[in-house]
Write a structure and sequence with these properties.
Elements lengths: L2 H6 L1 E4 L5 H14 L11 H8 L8 E6 L2 E10 L9 E8 L8 H15 L4 E7 L3 H9 L3 E6 L8 E7 L4
Parallel strand pairs: 4-5
Antiparallel strand pairs: 1-2, 2-3, 3-4, 5-7, 6-7
Length: 168
């Protein structure tokens, strides 16, 4: 990763004023790719519900670089069952022109640190198998394919990639 970029990337909890830009970033992927698993653009209220859960353990963070919002990263509930309370699902989206610069890797490291502080044991990323760049990012950072659900989504095969945040 470029150390100059690393020094300039910052993270802050997503606030109401971030929502329009976060929505634009996410909806770009809905409209132009298959990676989001949504087939219709989200509305502002739906995005608000997604990234501002109100639950202290499940938070989303704005990624800023060069004084501008470049994406967001967050931890959401993986499954609403007690046995999964120590598991979190990562979401990471960057503006299209912001990929390939090491910002995603820094965001992943940031959210892993937050996950450990919040006592998560496992992080899961549901990654569309067509999203090769995202797969490479997670594999490079120690994640393993833990499940594949072939053609269960409308768009393509989907896979789950996970990593333990600490050893039991």
């Amino acid at each position: 990763m470029n150390e100059d970029i690393a020094a300039e990337v910052s993270f802050s909890e997503i606030r109401e004023e971030h929502l329009p830009e976060v929505l634009d970033i996410y909806n770009y992927y809905v409209l132009n790719t298959t990676v989001s698993f949504h087939t219709e653009p989200l509305t502002l209220p739906a995005m608000r519900e997604s990234v501002l859960s109100g639950e202290p353990r499940f938070q989303s963070y704005a990624i800023e670089y060069g004084g501008e919002l470049q994406g967001y990263v967050g931890i959401a509930r993986h499954k609403n069952k007690q046995a999964y309370d120590s598991s979190g699902e990562i979401s990471l989206y960057l503006k299209p022109g912001c990929t390939g610069k090491g910002i995603g890797e820094q965001a992943l490291q940031f959210i892993e640190k937050r996950a450990a502080e919040l006592d998560f044991h496992v992080l899961v990323a549901t990654v569309c198998s067509e999203n090769e760049r995202s797969c490479r990012l997670f594999f490079k950072n120690g994640y393993e394919r833990s499940a594949i659900s072939r053609k269960s989504a409308l768009n393509s095969a989907e896979g789950w990639i996970s990593r333990a945040t600490r050893k039991s």
